[in-house]
């Protein structure tokens, strides 16, 4: 299970959002992502949140197995991968994002941004959400953004909603809030 918050951010508001990012959040290069997988660090960290599978940022229903080949593929397909480290330089939060230009009749031209956050700190989650939006302003310029933030149920949904609304999306009200149930069928 995981919590989910959805915000519809108009193009005009995207340009007005506070886009400073926390120095604690580090955007990883592909080489750094692959090192994280090859060292086993990524798998060890994600096992705190799941036994065998974790949801991907690029789909409502898709998941990745906690094995090197699946984690490598997930890292390669993510638009952005970000981490926060503690004072001992160990990962305490990781997030993946995917941007997708919608071509449906109802949402044509809207960019959907899915962020999958793994961590236990509301502050880290807020910093990651702001960093993902900040790094995506150029790619979404002039377009409305459906911002979808998925996060562990260990972070209270109501508190998270209030914090994201106040600190990240400048008072914009959430469009939806729900709990996802992840059911995996894997080959």
Layout of strands and helices, then pairs:
Layout: E1 2-9, H1 11-16, E2 25-27, H2 30-38, H3 41-46, E3 53-55, E4 63-65, H4 68-77, E5 80-85, E6 91-101, E7 111-119, H5 122-140, E8 145-152, H6 157-167, E9 176-180
Parallel strand pairs: 7-8
Antiparallel strand pairs: 1-8, 1-9, 2-5, 3-4, 5-6, 6-7
Helix pairs in contact: 2-4, 5-6
Protein described:
It is a single chain. With 187 residues, the protein is of the alpha+beta class. The chain has six helices and nine strands. It has a seven-stranded mixed beta sheet. The chain has a two-stranded antiparallel ribbon with strand order 3-4. A hairpin with a 5-residue loop joins β5 and β6. α2 runs antiparallel to α4. The longest helix has 19 residues. The protein is globular, with a radius of gyration of 16 Å. The chain starts with a strand and ends in a 7-residue tail after the last strand.
How are strands sequenced across the largest beta sheet?
A: 2-5-6-7-8-1-9
Largest sheet: 7 strands, mixed
Our estimate of the beta-strand percent is: 25-35%
If helices are DSSP runs of H or I spanning 4 or more residues, what is the number of helices? 6
Helix/sheet category: alpha+beta
Tell me the domain tally: 1
CATH fold naming:
Aminopeptidase
- What value does the Rg take, in angstroms? 16 Å
Distance between the termini: 21 Å
- Average pLDDT reading: 86
- Class, according to the CATH hierarchy? Alpha Beta
Query: How many β-strand stretches?
Result: 9
The secondary-structure element order is EHEHHEEHEEEHEHE
General form: globular
* CATH architecture descriptor text: 3-Layer(aba) Sandwich
| Uncertain stretches | 183-187
Range of helix content:
25-40%
